[in-house]
Design brief:
It is built from 17 helices and eleven strands. With 418 residues, it is α/β, with parallel strands linked by helices. Belongs to the CFA/CMAS family.
């Protein structure tokens, strides 16, 4: 008798070729055109578990080594499923699990407890050696800007920093706040390229240690400082000429959007400019991916622009520019996944094989969001006054050209030490 999973796959897979084998035998799904993937289950229970809760159990079965690939990989498996329609295959079990998750998300979002530091530590306080395996030389853990196409990961991350710096309109001597400063690369770039004084805030002890060490070695400690600081508690008495936030807004949480933008309004100078760089999705989500919530980014939430804009408007900030980057993160994630898998033995030595498979699933699933689910990056420029920035976008390209001269002569970055 066919398993519940195989009955589902028979309804789903019309395009491509998916071969499923295991203790229950072998079966082929699809018309044979397009992608070709072959998987093997170690035990019969694995198939039933996935059928009962594919959003979580597919990842867990793969993490536990109970799902093996004979052709293709986890990205190709996710892609062949997404290549086909899922509209006809919601089972009663999937529906009630979804309803429970919606209810759970509403309860969690309604409890006013600040878990920011705990949530950040879950991901960003992992060993720095792990991130060194797959990030570029500047440890940029956000979407690169692949303009022109075909450039390297490092070049794309330089282009991203250059693009954001141009939109900030930073001038020498200005005070810049970076909300979510990561491993310090953006702050150091702004200080060196634009002559500004930068304060970066983070909630990760590991990122704080690495970023402070990098700034010290680069001789920037007098112009670049990093603090263990929650944006919640920034003093409204301290004003900044510029604010930049890259890849942090996804951790704010849906109910905190208003708080976030009100705080930005409080600390941004009257003539200030803010640039927010974040992942967006095409419509509001009822709940987070259960795999991402449990294993990767607890408390995170990818917003839609429809959710962000009302919070911006209520804060008093004005939107002066929005740019959508639809596929750049897919390219970035592909680079990260390939680099990570090329050093999977080193990753396993830092943690274990289960962690390696979990991280591969995370990178593959994230890439899938951009290649198949219409996720995107938005860069939003915000001001307090209408005419703070020019009324055309020519200045962005002009400033980028000037910054290219700086990039060509910038001293090489020193390797991060552990």
């Amino acid at each position: 008798m066919a398993s519940s999973l195989r009955r589902l796959l028979a309804k789903i897979i019309k395009k491509g070729r998916l071969t499923v084998s295991g203790p229950a035998g072998s079966q082929v799904f699809g018309d044979g055109g397009g992608r070709t993937v072959a998987i093997r289950f170690i035990d019969t229970e694995a198939e039933e578990e996935i059928a009962s809760d594919p959003q979580l159990k597919l990842a867990e079965v793969y993490m536990d080594g109970r799902l093996l690939f004979e052709e293709g990989d986890i990205y190709e498996l996710l892609a062949i499923v997404k290549d086909n329609t899922l509209s006809e295959v919601l089972t009663p079990g999937m529906i009630w699990r979804g309803l429970l998750r919606i209810a759970g998300a509403r309860i969690r979002h309604g409890v006013p407890i600040n878990r920011n530091q705990r949530n950040v530590a879950h991901h960003y306080d992992l060993s720095a050696k792990l991130f060194n395996l797959f990030l570029d030389e500047d440890w940029q853990y956000s979407c690169g800007y692949f303009n022109p196409t075909g450039i390297s990961l490092y070049e794309a991350q330089v282009a991203k920093k250059r693009h954001i710096a141009a939109k900030l309109l930073a001038e020498p001597g200005q005070k810049v706040l970076e909300i979510g400063s990561g491993w310090g690369g953006m702050a150091m770039y702004l200080a060196e390229s634009s002559g500004v004084d930068v304060t970066g805030i983070t909630l990760s002890q590991e990122q704080l240690r690495v970023s402070r060490d990098r700034a010290r070695k680069r001789g920037l400690s007098d112009r670049v400082r990093f603090e263990l600081q929650d944006y919640y508690y920034l003093s409204p008495g301290t004003k900044y000429d510029r604010i930049v936030s890259v890849g942090m807004f996804e951790h704010v949480g849906r109910l905190n959007f208003g708080r976030y933008f009100r705080k930005a309004f409080e600390v941004l100078d009257e003539d200030g400019v803010m640039v927010l760089h974040s992942i967006g999705q095409p419509y509001p989500a009822r709940y987070n991916s259960p795999f991402i919530e449990k294993y990767i980014f607890p408390g995170g939430y990818i917003p839609s622009l429809a959710e962000v804009m009302p919070a911006v408007e209520r804060s008093g900030l004005l939107v002066s520019d929005i740019e959508i980057l639809p596929m750049h993160y897919a390219h970035t994630l592909r680079h990260w996944r390939e680099r990570f898998l090329a050093r999977r033995e080193e990753a396993a030595s830092i943690y274990d094989e289960r962690f390696v498979r979990m991280w591969e699933f995370y990178l593959a699933g994230s890439e899938m969001a951009f290649t198949h689910e219409n996720f995107f990056i938005f860069q939003m420029q915000l001001t307090r006054k209408r005419m703070t920035v020019p009324d055309n976008r020519d200045y962005i390209a002009e400033r980028e050209e000037r910054l290219k001269s700086f990039d060509a002569t910038r001293p090489p970055l020193e390797p991060v030490t552990f």
